[in-house]
């Protein structure tokens, strides 16, 4: 049995495979990616598990600051507006970082890139725990916040293992459970590292939280590198790597399909990021809920909805595409687009509902409205990332990087709107953000028209089509 190196990792080519449906050995042999000294043979489900665990923790460490904004503000003497800047800063490096790592994952393989990111994030999280000045703290947490770029790495990794008809569900499970890491941080961290924390290294709860999550991140980096395999076969790996050139990246990044999905991700995932970093402060300040654990628990209801419901968004997209079922009269025959459009409209309506709920003065009504916003985000994000790998099967990392990177812009801008000092109250910002989403929905309506949608992977805003075939939905 011959072997060689794929992306610098030991692998063999001629291996027996088992039919995934019957469980029986397939006749003949085909080329695969199985490391000679791998602890276990990776399958698509084991890859999905590994990627999901890695991203779940990345999301936890990304927003590990959110439950501790109160004590951090006291120690560093931060105003409410400065807390808003800190929440916004958690997203500053994500756009470029996601675009870059999406391309790097196509080029060098997801396991290597994922491990590198987890390792340096862990180092800087530990460093932030020892910061004595706010400048050092801010700079180190800015680097820790790049943990969010692992999203596109995992999207690329999962797409390299699953077939087109399963992509929406698989990516939805990955991203949904992964995004729920923010809820895990909001629920677990302030309970484990409570205000009365007294440990062997730190007597300050948030410093201890940042230190120990950093240690776990470094350990997880080693696990991901040891167990991860870049693709299900060497042919698939080669096809993806071949598409990872600069010219190919520019082409795919400027297609109508890429652009509209990236903007749609601004108003969904960008919104989710902004809420994850802001809601604990909102429930505490907007309703005079000074109990840190209670405010974080209220905020976690949004994160649970936005994370755990995301697989439904991907599953519905897959189901409609397989059944070729129209759910609205618009965009006939464009089944994934129909579901994406419906879910985007729901997000806009839910944001106006968030303002109305806040103005009612009843915190539980506002918590319920936040849950609905999270549900809209989940369905939309699942729908969007069911489309991405289906439209661009050999450039999923590059396109996911563009969509995921541009999408994070919402996470930078929206917190500044929520905390804007010129607003009459903390509830009004949600309606303003909702109104800003309407042009994106209108652009989606234009691109999702069948005559345009069928050319959305060839036609774009920059350059002419090179005649590449349109991928089937």
TrEMBL record:
Where is this protein primarily located?
A: membrane
- What GO molecular function terms would the record report? nitrate transmembrane transporter activity
What the entry lists under InterPro entries is as follows:
MFS, MFS_dom, MFS_trans_sf, NO3_transporter
Q: Provide one Gene Ontology biological process annotation.
A: nitrate assimilation
Its record classes its membrane topology as: Multi-pass membrane protein
Q: Name the domain of life.
A: Archaea
Q: What is this protein called?
A: MFS transporter, NNP family, nitrate/nitrite transporter
Lineage of the species this protein comes from: Archaea, Methanobacteriati, Methanobacteriota, Stenosarchaea group, Halobacteria
């Amino acid at each position: 049995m011959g072997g060689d190196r794929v992306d610098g990792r030991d692998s063999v080519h001629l291996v027996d495979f088992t039919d995934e449906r019957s469980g029986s050995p397939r006749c003949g042999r085909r080329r695969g990616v199985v490391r000679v000294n791998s602890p276990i043979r990776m399958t698509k489900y084991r890859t999905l598990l590994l990627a999901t665990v890695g991203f779940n923790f990345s999301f936890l460490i990304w927003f590990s600051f959110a439950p501790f904004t109160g004590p951090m503000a006291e120690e560093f003497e931060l105003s409410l507006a400065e807390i808003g800047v800190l929440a916004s800063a958690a997203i500053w490096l994500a756009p470029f970082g996601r675009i870059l790592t999406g391309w790097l994952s196509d080029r060098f393989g997801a396991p290597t890139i994922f491990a590198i990111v987890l390792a340096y994030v862990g180092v800087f999280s530990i460093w932030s725990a020892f910061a004595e000045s706010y400048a050092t703290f801010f700079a180190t947490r800015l680097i820790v916040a790049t943990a969010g770029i692992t999203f596109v790495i995992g999207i690329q990794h999962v797409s390299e293992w699953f077939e087109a008809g399963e992509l929406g569900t698989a990516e939805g499970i990955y991203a949904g459970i992964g995004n729920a890491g923010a809820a895990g941080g909001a629920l677990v961290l302030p309970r484990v590292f409570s205000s009365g924390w007294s440990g062997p290294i730190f007597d300050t709860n948030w410093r201890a939280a940042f230190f120990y999550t950093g240690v776990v991140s470094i350990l997880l980096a080693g696990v991901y590198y040891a167990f991860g395999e870049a693709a299900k076969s060497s042919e698939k790996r080669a096809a993806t790597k071949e598409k990872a050139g600069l010219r190919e990246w520019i082409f795919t990044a400027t297609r109508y399909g890429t652009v509209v999905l990236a903007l749609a991700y601004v108003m969904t995932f960008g919104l989710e990021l902004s809420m994850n970093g802001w809601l604990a402060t909102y429930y505490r300040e907007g309703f005079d809920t000074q109990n840190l654990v209670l405010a974080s628990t209220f905020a976690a209801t949004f994160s649970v909805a936005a994370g755990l419901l995301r697989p439904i968004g991907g599953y519905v997209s897959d189901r409609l595409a397989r059944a070729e079922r129209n759910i609205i009269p618009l965009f006939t025959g464009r089944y994934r687009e129909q579901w994406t459009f419906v879910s985007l409209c729901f997000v806009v309506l839910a944001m106006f509902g968030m303002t109305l709920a806040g103005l009612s003065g009843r915190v539980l009504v506002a918590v319920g409205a936040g849950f609905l916003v999270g549900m809209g985000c989940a369905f939309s994000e699942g729908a969007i990332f069911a489309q991405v790998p289906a439209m661009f099967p050999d450039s999923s990392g590059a396109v996911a990087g563009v969509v995921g990177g541009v999408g994070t812009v919402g996470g930078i801008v929206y917190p500044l709107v929520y905390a804007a000092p010129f607003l009459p109250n903390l509830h009004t910002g949600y309606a303003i953000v909702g109104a800003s989403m309407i042009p994106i929905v209108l652009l989606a309506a234009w691109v999702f028209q069948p005559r345009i949608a069928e050319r959305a992977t060839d036609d774009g805003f920059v350059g002419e089509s090179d005649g590449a075939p349109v991928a089937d939905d």
